[in-house]
Amino acid sequence: MTLKEAYSYAVTFLERNGVDESDFKALCVVCSILNIKNSEYDLHRNDFVPNKKLADMLWKLKDGQPLQYVLGKWDFYESLFYIGEGVLIPRPETEELVEKAIDYIKTLGKCTVYDLCAGSGCIGLSIAKKCKNAFVYLIEKSEDALPYLKKNAKGIENVKIIQGDICKSDSFFELENADIIISNPPYIKSDDIACLQCEVLKEPLMALDGGKDGLDFYRIINDNWNKKLNKNGKLFLEIGDEQGKDILHILSNFNNINVFKDLYGNDRMVVADKK
Predict the structure, then answer these.
(1) Helix, strand, or coil here: 69?
(2) Residue 173 scores a pLDDT above 90
(3) Any residues with CB less than 8 A from the CB of 156 and at least 6 apart, and which?
(4) Are the C-beta atoms of residues 48 and 5 closer than 8 Å to each other?
(5) 181: alpha, beta or left, given left = phi > 0 and alpha = psi -120 to 50?
(6) Closest-CA residue to 140 (of 127, 149, 151, 128)
(7) Residue 169 pLDDT > 90
């Protein structure tokens, strides 16, 4: 069938099966099959779309798979990142954190950046692409996430991937100290995990669960990773929308702690200086 026919069929199929945002998801699916941008749909509406591939992708959406996993890639901060089961899906709120970090890094000379809990690498790799003065260490524990991280990092010279658990900071003592630490760690309360949307529950628990109060990883970063920051080092964090006040008390090894809101008006980003 043509792209136009495939889109119409996909919308109807998704609507009948109760999939939300059916128009948008149908457009993303049919355009991804032809490897074109959504904005190029009109130019290719008469191109042929393989029926089997379309059916496979639609059935995955019907079964509750996140759109990003079905597509196998997602746009983040002007780049396309490969993602799939086992890695956290990049979100637009995180782009705001990356923007703040890049603006700061561009004021520096040569510098070293740690991206803790790197996942797909969307944060650290975006920084590395925009800031050639920065060398970025991408630290990730998950065996499932590493293949995506490595694939996304291919061809980027000013990065190094390290598989490791940030909860065991002593194992990183040989690493040069950093000028910037940035992280989007797990920050959802353990008891709140079961209440998340079905699609979010398809994402790895390791990347979501921040412990009883959702703040475990911030304590680890404050208590252990502050030692790996150079004098005048800076910390950039993504936080949950109700964690702004708590983070002010947790970051006892930092000062000039600023909490910033995202585009939706929620507390989302923290920038702080090492004491």
Answers:
(1) helix
(2) no
(3) 125, 128, 129
(4) no
(5) beta
(6) 149
(7) no
| CB distance 171 to 148 below 8 Å | no
pLDDT digits (tens, 9 = 90+) for 100-144: 999 999 999 999 999 999 999 999 999 999 999 999 999 999 999
Instruction: Choose among 120, 107, 43: nearest CA to 75.
Output: 120
Burial readout 46-84 (b: 16 or more C-beta within 10 A, e: otherwise): eeebeeeebeebbebbeeebbbbbbbebbebbeeebbbb
Q: Which pair of structure tokens corresponds to residue 18?
A: 């109760």
Place of tokens 């996140």: 66
pTM for the structure as a whole:
0.94
Q: Which pair of structure tokens corresponds to residue 178?
A: 């950093």
For the chain, what's the residue count? 275
Locus of tokens 């000028």: 179
Instruction: Give the CA-trace dihedral at 135, 140, 143, 145, to 10 degrees.
Output: -80
Distance (Å, whole) CA 74 – CA 126: 13
φ/ψ of 2, rounded to 5, equals -75, 170
Write down the residue that tokens 């996942």 correspond to.
Answer: 119
